[in-house]
Specification:
The structure is a single chain. The chain is about 30% helix and about 25% strand. With about 475 residues, it is α/β, with parallel strands linked by helices. Among the domains are: about 5-190, ANL, N-terminal domain (Rossmann fold, 3-Layer(aba) Sandwich); about 380-465, GMP Synthetase, Chain A, domain 3 (2-Layer Sandwich), CATH 3.30.300.30. Helix 1 (about 30-40) crosses helix 2 (about 55-70). The longest helix has 15 residues, at about 30-40. The relative contact order is 0.09.
């Protein structure tokens, strides 16, 4: 059996500030002791929930559940009552670990305290089997009620070890981020990654440019929105020059932000790709090429392929678009209580990501977008919305953009660009794309908006654009 979190077994010594969340600090030995004590309180439970606030309590609660071998459900702290009720009912959680009361969760559940007095301690629990469920993380629910994704301890360990290899991540690193602790990015990479590798962790509470600049880290995690805000504060950006790696994910990093971040910090961002169901599967490398707009190659233990609408594999020529399918050590074990949905998500051993991508002859991957939303079939052509968005972002009047296809009686779908910017001239932008790309990829319509709808991770919610 693999020890999932060596930090809970004394593997990393006892640094006085091993984990910092906001103003709260804990050492490795203190974290291990608190996790053991809470683990003893929940031993034998079938499932527990955690209100995943950006606090040290969340780190302790998740660590305790993993130590006890009890699957844990991170609940978004900003979830409304309907969503909370669904997560708790669907997961059949039997208790809540610390930090919340019953009325906030919308359902009466036993509450387990995270308090730990100075003299409290408990023996280290027996490490669960590798195939035991570590956590149940819920999808965003954009196409229906959120589904519970079963992530095994083996998958979590494989994903983190693959990234540690790709990023040359070691105990000497100091990981810094301020991301939500109910997603893969902030919780699995940003917390469990540090606890597995043994690198110190600084969670800034919020991912502000000033907080990142003052953290003195070596390995920074952020989403494109965060990096865009960092670039808007040149002094904060320049303070990151001493870091080792800047990593971006959860949404495509716009090429202008990639370029500006490199200009201000001296670092070309490492971009990576993954999903709740697959964890992180693709990444550029610490010692390899970092190409703006591309997310690199599969990490160790992961394999990919592209297929067309008929399930036939497409060429890896850097231009032909296909659905990205994945198989390997990081994949989930299925959707909780939904065997039909699980079966539909796979083609044999291959997980259907629903994302469109291209792969170049050297194995580098570029994500074009969601097949259902970002591949626009217009006038007999397939157009990737991301390519049009990148072209528009290179125009000085455009600050943010989302490109969608809307029904059109003549073309099938009409390319429409929703633009946030200053002094936007629709005809000029249409000509700009036609001159930059193929003429058939130009928007037929440009709509100026004050903002784009985004979720907690900064992803644009295109289904809300109409």
């Amino acid at each position: 059996m693999t020890v999932l979190l060596p930090a809970l077994h004394g593997a990393h010594g006892d640094h006085a500030a091993a984990v910092r969340v906001g103003d709260e600090v804990i050492s490795w030995s203190q974290l291990a002791r608190r996790a053991r004590v809470v683990a003893a309180r929940i031993a034998g439970m079938s499932m527990v929930a955690v209100e995943a606030t950006p606090t040290l309590d969340t780190v302790v609660a998740v660590a305790a559940a993993l130590a006890a071998g009890v699957p844990v459900v991170p609940v978004p702290p900003d979830a409304g009552p309907v969503e909370r009720e669904h997560l708790l009912r669907d997961s059949a959680a039997v208790a809540v670990l610390g930090g919340v009361d019953e009325s906030q969760l919308g359902r009466a559940l036993p509450w387990v305290s995270l308090a730990c007095a100075d003299g409290d301690d408990a023996p280290a629990p027996t490490e669960p089997a590798d195939d035991a469920t570590a956590m149940v993380m819920y999808t965003s629910g954009t196409t229906g009620a959120p589904k519970g994704v079963l992530l095994s301890r083996r998958a979590v360990a494989a994903g983190l070890d693959g990234l540690a290899e790709a990023w040359e991540w070691t105990p000497d690193d100091i990981v810094v981020h301020g991301l939500p602790l109910f997603h893969v990015h902030g919780l699995v990479l940003g917390v469990l990654g540090a606890l597995r590798v043994g690198s110190r962790l600084v969670h800034t509470g919020r991912p502000t440019p000033q907080a990142y600049a003052g953290a003195a880290g070596t390995l920074y995690f952020g989403v494109p929105t965060v990096w865009g805000r960092v670039c808007a504060e040149p002094a904060a950006a320049e303070a990151l020059a001493a870091a080792r790696l800047l990593v971006s994910g959860s949404a495509p990093l716009p090429v202008p932000v990639f370029d500006e971040l490199r200009r201000l910090t001296g670092h070309a961002a490492v971009e990576r790709y993954g999903m709740t169901e697959t964890l992180i599967t693709l990444s550029t490398r610490c010692a390899g090429e970092r190409r703006p707009g591309w997310v690199g190659t599969p990490i160790a233990g992961v394999h990919t392929r592209l297929v067309d609408d008929h399930g036939v594999e497409v060429d890896h020529d850097g231009g032909e678009i296909g659905e990205l399918q994945v198989h390997g050590d990081t994949l989930f074990d299925g959707y909780l209580g939904r065997p039909e949905a699980t079966a539909a998500a796979f083609d044999g051993p291959w997980f259907r990501t629903g994302d469109a991508a291209v792969i170049d002859p050297g194995g580098f991957h570029r994500i074009v977008g969601r097949q259902s939303m970002d591949i626009i079939k217009t006038g007999g052509f397939k157009v990737g919305a991301g390519e049009v968005e990148t072209a528009l972002l290179l125009h000085p009047s455009v600050h943010e953009v989302a490109v969608v296809g809307v029904p059109d009686g003549d073309l099938g779908q009409r390319i429409v660009a929703f633009v946030v910017g200053d002094g936007v001239d629709a005809d000029e932008l249409i000509k700009h794309v036609a001159d930059s790309l193929s003429v058939h990829k130009r928007p037929r319509e440009v709509r100026v908006v004050e903002s784009l709808p985004r979720n907690a991770m900064g992803k644009v919610q295109k289904h809300q654009l109409h």
